[in-house]
Write a structure and sequence with these properties.
This protein is mainly α and 122 residues long. It has two domains: 60 residues; 40 residues. The chain is elongated, with a radius of gyration of 16 Å.
């Protein structure tokens, strides 16, 4: 059994998987066997989702990839209308990577992305 973001999304839902990606990017996440209602994982994604995750991966330590959290932050900033060059500077990545994320985001039919030149400036 492999824990990756697709599996995480299947168990917890996309929104909760994204929360984990952003909050724990680049860190080792311990998934408790019996999550406490007031524990960090339950506070972040809700106790019901933490229990579902623990049922399959309780006791595991998972190195949360940095790239997934960064991609999610880029998507959020693009939705707010930030310019790709500003996002790249603020997040410490290449403008090319930001443009790739924007292209993938634009290919998703249920998500609106601002057109170049629209939106707010940081």
């Amino acid at each position: 059994m492999i824990l990756n973001f697709q599996t995480l999304r299947d168990i917890c839902g996309r929104e909760n998987a994204d929360k984990i990606a952003v909050e724990f990017a680049g860190q080792r996440l311990f998934i408790p066997r019996k999550p406490d209602k007031d524990g960090p994982l339950s506070r972040l994604i809700g106790h019901a989702s933490a229990l579902k995750l623990a049922a399959r991966f309780g006791g595991w330590r998972w190195e949360v990839p940095v790239a997934e959290g960064k991609r999610i932050r880029i998507e959020r900033m693009l939705r707010l209308g930030h310019a790709p060059q500003d996002i790249a500077r603020m997040l410490g990545c290449s403008q090319r990577y930001v443009m790739r994320v924007r292209s993938r985001l634009a290919a998703q039919p249920d998500i609106e992305t601002p057109k170049p030149g629209q939106g707010v400036q940081p």
